[in-house]
Design a protein that fits this description.
2 domains; 336 residues; alpha/beta; 6-stranded mixed beta sheet; Peroxisomal Thiolase, Chain A, domain 1; 9 helices; 15 strands
């Protein structure tokens, strides 16, 4: 019998694990956005003193993890697991970072939902008694993602208004049994939802139904309402997807208009040429571990629901004419 399972898709933690430290590194474009003061390191260029964008992404993730561990005050040898993923083929940024970190590694892939998946799995390990301290992380890079999923930057292809900019950055957090705020109290694991969208330049619209499905399931399983949260935060829907999600939630009887926003809208200013907004594995990670974590420490937010969303497509699936399967995972983070 699953003693900690409530409803059909949600886990409620008996001893809510603590997020005791975070770190966030972002690229030069993100460093000019409205959240610039919340990030630990802003890069001057896209290469981070490396020869390729992919190696720069690996370096960002590795250094974000090391920074989060250092800030936690826990010796690195006491970090029992490293859970991470990214967008690159076979999650190579996370795997190569793990090679250098030397921490037992779980590589995961949830596209842009990866950080919520990592937080959920990490919290289950800690609450289940399988670890006292672990670190989760995710990364993405605009240049490497464009090269892999769309067109090489050298071609100068025009992107439609529905397109989102992949966030260049990496975020990491240490999860522990130590008695500190904020805590992870609930995790709702999402289902793959595919409504037939096939445009890789409009992933916000494709992912919105998955976010809505997970939010509704979380509220039903936990017996909570939107008003129980100071903030409901989706990961990567940006302007188009956020509007669709808000309307779909309202159609289902949940009015979230006064407490809902999206990481892809928060990270860039309207004056920056990012079209619909931000996305990528780093989007929810750096906004949550930079802005949200620090505002929770100040007491501005005491209970947030992070719902990171992922489009589970690949360059191969697009070429084969496949539609876009999507997923969203929800993590409740609270000051208790």
């Amino acid at each position: 019998m699953a003693l900690k399972k409530i409803g059909s898709q949600t886990v409620k933690f008996e001893n809510p694990p603590s997020i005791i430290s975070t770190a966030s590194i972002v690229g030069p474009v993100e460093g000019k956005g409205p959240l610039k003061d919340y990030f630990d390191l802003i890069l001057n260029d896209f290469h981070f003193q490396e020869k390729t964008w992919e190696k720069a992404e690996k370096k960002m993730l590795k250094e974000a993890v090391e920074m989060a561990i250092k800030k936690s005050g826990i010796p690195s040898e006491e970090i029992e697991y490293f859970i991470a993923g990214d967008l690159l083929n076979q999650i190579i940024a996370a795997s190569y970072a793990a090679r250098e970190l030397g921490i037992p590694f779980y590589g995961i892939y949830g596209a842009c939902s990866t950080i919520a998946e990592g937080l959920g799995l990490g919290a289950m390990l800690v609450d289940g008694g399988y670890a006292d301290n672990l670190v989760v992380g995710s990364s993405s890079h605009f240049c490497s993602a464009e090269r892999q999923y769309r067109f090489p930057l050298e071609l100068g292809n025009q992107r439609p208004p529905t397109a989102q900019r992949t966030v260049t950055g990496a975020g990491a957090a240490v999860i522990s049994t130590k008695n500190r705020n904020p805590r992870i109290t609930y995790v709702t694991t999402g289902k793959v939802i595919d409504m037939g969208a096939a445009d890789p330049y409009d992933m916000g619209s494709a992912m919105a139904p998955a976010a809505v499905d997970t939010i509704i399931k979380h509220l039903e399983d936990s017996k909570r309402s939107p008003e129980d949260y100071d903030l409901i935060l989706t990961g990567d829907l940006a302007s188009l997807g956020k509007d669709i999600a808000e309307k779909l939630l309202k159609q289902n009887g949940f009015d979230v208009s006064n407490r809902y926003t999206d990481c892809g809208l928060l990270i860039y200013s309207p004056q920056q040429d990012v079209h619909a907004g931000g996305s990528g594995c780093a989007c929810a990670a750096v906004v949550t571990f930079g802005y949200i974590f620090k505002e929770m420490q100040k007491g501005r937010y005491n209970r947030i629901l992070l719902v990171a969303t992922g489009a589970l497509l690949s360059s191969t699936s697009v070429q084969q004419g496949e539609t876009i399967p999507c997923i969203a995972h929800a993590v409740a983070i609270e000051n208790l």
